[in-house]
Amino acid sequence: MKAFETFAPGERELAAALDPGRMPAHIAIIMDGNGRWAKRRGLPRFAGHRAGANRVRSIVEDCSNLGVKALTLYAFSAENWKRPRLEIDLLWRLLRIYLRSDLADLQRNNIRLTSIGRVEALPPLAYRELRATEKATERNTGMRLNLAINYSARNEIADAVNAIIDEARIAGRLARLTIDEAAIGRHLYTSGLPEPDLLVRTSGEMRVSNFLLWQIAYAELYVTETYWPDFDRSELLKAILEFQRRERRFGGLSEAPAVEAVNEDLPEDEANLEAEENEEIAVSSQ
Ligand code: FPP
Predict the structure, then answer these.
(1) Cα 201 to Cα 226: distance, rounded to the nearest angstrom
(2) 267 is a domain residue
């Protein structure tokens, strides 16, 4: 974890409260609310997206300084093609501007940029810029900045299953193929990345919107009313602090119960179960 060079009021205290040993390795963010941010200011949606792109810059740098290993940002969903043509064109332009103007910063911070989603469908200029940035940063060993673009989690799972079937067909073992969780995990677009520990959604909607459905099985969810362009460093620190306050059990127990206590409880529980079962039999035979 690197020290921040400057602090806005209140940030120093929030940063000091962090436990550096319990940072989320992978943060995923649904960046929502650009349009509402602009509307609230009487500005066109364009201005909201531009402010959103600027926020991407600052959050990427902050996450990298905090020692986060991977940051996945939902930049464009496969459903976003339903938006007006002009707005979509603007989003591609913003993406190109971001990729070009921030390459030097990505290199300086040793950040590797990758993408997930069906990016071949992007307009050629945006696609080329994306691939060029991925290539230019592929040897960087610091944080992984993973942009979800033309992304749909359901497409991703279907693509993974089809890839497994294709491989089995080529290897001549299709007839014996069984697909398990590990095989799906290895064939997802995010293969090689840790699963997100923390999923943040800005602007208050309580939905996951077809984002990383497989990978967020055990992620902690954090929804804030703050619009994405306002999601500044102190908002990020608050989200991480909330994550650190949560107890993650992955379906287990927080503490193993004392063995004696479990054994002591058994006879009574068993007796109750037996009584319930007898009652059920009696009812069903009436
Ligand atoms: C949601 O806000 C945001 C998006 C669909 C696009 C996210 C894009 C950016 C943050 C800018 C460009 C990205 C990069 C990586 C440089 P919305 O328009 O749905 O907001 P609303 O729900 O308030 O209308």
Answers:
(1) 9
(2) no
Q: Which atom of ligand 1 is nearest to the CA of 77?
A: 5
69 lines ligand 1 (CB under 6 A): no
Cβ(111)–Cβ(64) below 8 Å = yes
Range(s) of the domain holding residue 109: 22-151+193-258
Please tell me the total count of domains within the chain. 1
**Residue 264: inside a domain, yes or no?**
no
Q: Per-residue pLDDT tens for 14-33?
A: 999 999 999 999 999 999 99
CATH of the domain at 226: 3.40.1180.10
- Decide if 145 contacts 112 (C-beta within 8 A): yes
Atom 3 (ligand 1): residue with closest C-alpha? 32
pLDDT tens for residues 128-170? 999 999 999 999 999 999 999 999 999 999 999 999 999 999 9
Q: How far apart are CA 243 and CA 226, in angstroms?
A: 17
pTM for the whole structure: 0.89
Closest CA to 216 of 23, 12, 24: 24
Cα–ligand 1 centroid distance for 49 (angstroms): 6
